[in-house]
């Protein structure tokens, strides 16, 4: 397949805009030849009209056929072979091995949602049968299930060209649930977006999905995203990226005549707390593990551990020495975009210049011609950390701050200054952890995921994963973007009162033809009624 | 017990404000002697500090003890006997029979949540066990469950002094989940609020709950509500009332440094569609049923059917005649507050003066000395309805507009002008309904609950109830305020990665000591691991 550079409006391609942009190649600090056309206002309108028209038809398609569509996407993506991976590599500078793994994860996400909707119990069917003879008033028959909500606008993320982009963690559940999807492609990887969109369109066509079930639009500015979020047909928004970007979309969505839900995952400093006995017992392995996590993917993960807390204790010197040595060993790393690189060095330098911050490892900013970074780490006292809000914020990239507290009281005070996080981690064995209930509570309350004796990087795609967290890590702590429950962002319950069995959706019919788990008169069962 | 008129700040009573207000008695258009003290800014601050301190302790109390607390509330409320009902009657003008029923429903809600948390499966536990030998990377052990989020601010509603007020549909699930609750009492019934608060405080004390698990503050203005919603310790808001009130709180919550979820249920016109064959077959019973529903509780229900759609058909004349006769028969009804009565007549008169609106039954506004209304109904053509947005809005009180459409096409066009609703209803047998798939889709998409051959008034408290709906009926179509799923508004998922079994909450331990349903490696089971 070849890159068209055109917007994918349902089954049509469209390039009305004379203005174009090109892909940036971070490893070579150059651009690729293909041109991409930002969507015009008319193209946005056409896209939304098509999505709205597709909604009723798509929502009514049996789940098994929607599952076929999702699996067809995986087949079309795999059929593109190395072409897809190579383009992703060119546009992101991420290593081929990592991209292969990420594609695998994306295929896995689509497959899990296909399986979820094939099985069917995810709709949380609840049936309360009628009691016509109840006094003083008869009880009606009530049945409830989750239903799709309408066209969903999704923003591709820069740091995961597959798993959080065109066919990623927002698209898979939104399509699985029965909603049309409109993708705003991330300008950092338009070519891989183009190819992935072609895979989705081809999959939709060959599995008989309605025209408009999927569209993808380009923009290297903010106009298309704004128009999509403000469009009255849009019913929810999915976003992964910066705090500034996420909040801009969130505010925009709340200011509409009809406010709509925005799930924005906006990053996190992912504090790691190391308790002293554990620091003493595992000094070297902790230092090495943390060094690996801080520098993984050039630190460009929302789960990057940006703050490491510990207590002043005998093992600390040795830990710092090994930690600095290991971080210093990491060779230079390509960053995703020029903007991310520049911002990294700006924020890192700002952090290093704050009062009381002592540099442990300082990487050099390479020449302009190379979009590279090296890891830096620094150290600050709990006291200085507590009084300086600038140190509580994320530095996106390979940087981490070691916060050394005098005692457990100061550590608790420091943790109280940390806002909501995707993850928190505690390095402690069961006995030492049990001795610090306040630390456990403080870390629990701030976290979407609380890890014991592990680093936050690495987000498993499974039912028990919660990839979300209290504000400001996301805009709504009640939802996740990873795992089966990610579908809950894009559905709503609908109750059916006193419906004739013949008109009810299969999920709610007496005979339970799909054999799903249902809560019938408050008992979970797969039985018919 | 006697009414204190003081704010209930945890286990203390406080009346710092020199300003006071009194209860209005709608049936007599007079006031009761007791004075109530709006909370001061200092009292609000003290309340929130106490709630925040109570949170960690309360969240850690075993569910069985929280269930005891909820059941103790029911006992204390029942122990107040007729005193509570009589005060409610004085302050609302609602008939004693209705209030007795409503108290029963409130007790039922508390009991259902006590049972829900005693059983325990509501936490949606998910366990994915580790695969240490998986390649290329080992899979960690991940477990997830719903946890409370912190202090919840709840606004009592004017039209249900028990079921949607101090111990009502928001308080019961918020407390059940493990969150402290701060009630802003509705100034329309401060006395019954005072008594109910005493019941809750007494129940909390005798079941050993932490001081601050529940507080209740007065205000007959907006200051206290504003301060509560803006307070940084507040983590979510529950509200039932007007569109204007709900949206003011929603905007306020979004403009905080940390935006928080607001579930505002803001009313609805609850459109009812009658298809022609069914109109012909059941002319008289439909007219009588609708007349009863429009006038129930003086029309002061969020589920009042404010719009009735039908097609011009042979049975229409007869239907109109009986409908008008039945509505005309209803004797005058007391309205809850002066403000509600005045607003009702203002909006009704405005609707009746719109182009093409023909009055079918017109009630008179009684003298100032009586806070009474009588039901009014009117008729308009589909054509006039479609072009006039003023007719699409709610008139809170006993008013309903009959919209007569020329044909099914015009009916569909009219329904497209209706925004989101708590309920929609279709009067049609299975065969006739099946012949109108577009009508079914239009009504489904706009509804939280879709009723066949029944009126929207009457909200059953059960698992399959969805009392919510697309905007503007609520601020978030994904949540309900009635039924077991109402608890989902006030919790969030938390993942535990690689935790030692001894430190995990009981819900997630290998042995499953609570015997709850869990999703273990994608299979629902009550078994241990």
From TrEMBL, chains A, B:
<dbReference type="InterPro" id="IPR016163">
    <property type="entry name" value="Ald_DH_C"/>
</dbReference>
<dbReference type="InterPro" id="IPR015590">
    <property type="entry name" value="Aldehyde_DH_dom"/>
</dbReference>
<keyword id="KW-0560">Oxidoreductase</keyword>
<dbReference type="InterPro" id="IPR044151">
    <property type="entry name" value="ALDH_KGSADH"/>
</dbReference>
<dbReference type="InterPro" id="IPR016161">
    <property type="entry name" value="Ald_DH/histidinol_DH"/>
</dbReference>
<dbReference type="InterPro" id="IPR016162">
    <property type="entry name" value="Ald_DH_N"/>
</dbReference>
<dbReference type="Pfam" id="PF00171">
    <property type="entry name" value="Aldedh"/>
</dbReference>
<feature type="domain" description="Aldehyde dehydrogenase">
    <location>
        <begin position="17"/>
        <end position="411"/>
    </location>
</feature>
<dbReference type="InterPro" id="IPR050740">
    <property type="entry name" value="Aldehyde_DH_Superfamily"/>
</dbReference>
<dbReference type="GO" id="GO:0016620">
    <property type="term" value="F:oxidoreductase activity, acting on the aldehyde or oxo group of donors, NAD or NADP as acceptor"/>
</dbReference>
<protein>
    <submittedName>
        <fullName>Aldehyde dehydrogenase family protein</fullName>
    </submittedName>
</protein>
């Amino acid at each position: 397949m070849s890159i068209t550079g055109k917007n994918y409006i349902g089954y049509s391609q469209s390039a009305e805009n004379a203005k174009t942009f090109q892909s940036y190649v971070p490893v070579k600090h150059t651009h690729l030849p293909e041109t991409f056309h930002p969507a015009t206002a008319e193209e946005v309108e056409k896209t939304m009209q098509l999505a709205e028209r597709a909604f009723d038809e798509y929502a009514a398609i049996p789940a098994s056929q929607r599952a076929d569509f999702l699996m067809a996407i995986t087949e079309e993506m795999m059929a593109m072979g190395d072409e897809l991976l190579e383009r992703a590599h060119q546009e992101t500078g991420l290593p081929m091995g990592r991209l292969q793994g990420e594609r695998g994860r994306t295929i896995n996400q689509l497959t899990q949602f296909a399986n979820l909707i094939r099985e069917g119990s995810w709709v949380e069917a609840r049936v309360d049968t009628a009691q016509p003879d109840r006094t003083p008033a008869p009880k009606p028959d009530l049945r409830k299930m989750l239903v799709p909500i309408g066209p969903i606008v999704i923003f591709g993320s820069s740091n995961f060209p597959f798993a959080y982009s065109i066919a990623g963690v927002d698209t898979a559940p939104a399509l699985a649930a029965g909603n049309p999807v409109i993708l705003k492609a991330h300008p950092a990887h338009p070519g891989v977006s183009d190819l992935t969109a072609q895979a989705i369109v081809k999959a939709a066509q060959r599995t008989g999905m309605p025209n408009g079930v999927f569209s993808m639009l380009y923009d290297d500015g903010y106009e298309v995203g704004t128009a999509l979020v403000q469009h009255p047909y849009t019913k929810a928004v999915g976003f992964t990226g910066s705090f500034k970007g996420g909040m801009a979309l969130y505010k925009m969505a709340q200011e509409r005549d009809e406010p709509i839900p925005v799930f924005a995952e906006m990053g996190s400093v992912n504090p790691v707390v190391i308790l002293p006995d554990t620091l003493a017992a595992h000094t070297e392995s902790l230092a090495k593990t943390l060094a690996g996590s801080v520098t993984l993917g050039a630190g460009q993960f929302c789960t990057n551990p940006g703050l490491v807390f510990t207590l002043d204790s005998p093992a600390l010197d040795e830990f710092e020495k090994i930690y600095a040595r290991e971080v210093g060993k990491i060779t230079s790393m390509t960053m995703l975009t020029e903007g991310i690189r520049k911002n990294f060095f700006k924020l890192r330098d700002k952090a290093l210049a704050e009062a009381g911050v002592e540099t442990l490892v300082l990487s050099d900013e390479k020449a302009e011609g190379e979009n590279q970074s090296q890891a830096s780490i620094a150290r600050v006292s709990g006291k200085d950390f507590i009084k300086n809000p600038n140190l509580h914020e994320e530095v996106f990239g390979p940087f981490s701050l070691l916060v050394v507290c005098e005692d457990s009281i100061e550590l608790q005070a420091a943790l109280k200054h940390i806002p909501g996080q995707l993850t928190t981690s505690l390095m402690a064995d069961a006995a030492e952890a049990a001795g610090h209930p306040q630390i456990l509570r403080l870390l629990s309350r701030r976290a979407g995921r609380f890890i014991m004796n592990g680093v936050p990087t690495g987000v498993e795609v499974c039912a028990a994963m919660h990839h979300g967290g209290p504000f400001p890590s996301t805009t709504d702590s009640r939802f996740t973007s990873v795992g089966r429950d990610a579908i809950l962002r894009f559905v709503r319950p609908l109750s059916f009162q006193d419906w004739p069995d013949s008109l009810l959706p299969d999920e709610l019919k007496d005979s339970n033809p799909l054999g799903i788990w249902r809560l019938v008169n408050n008992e979970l069962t797969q039985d018919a009624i």
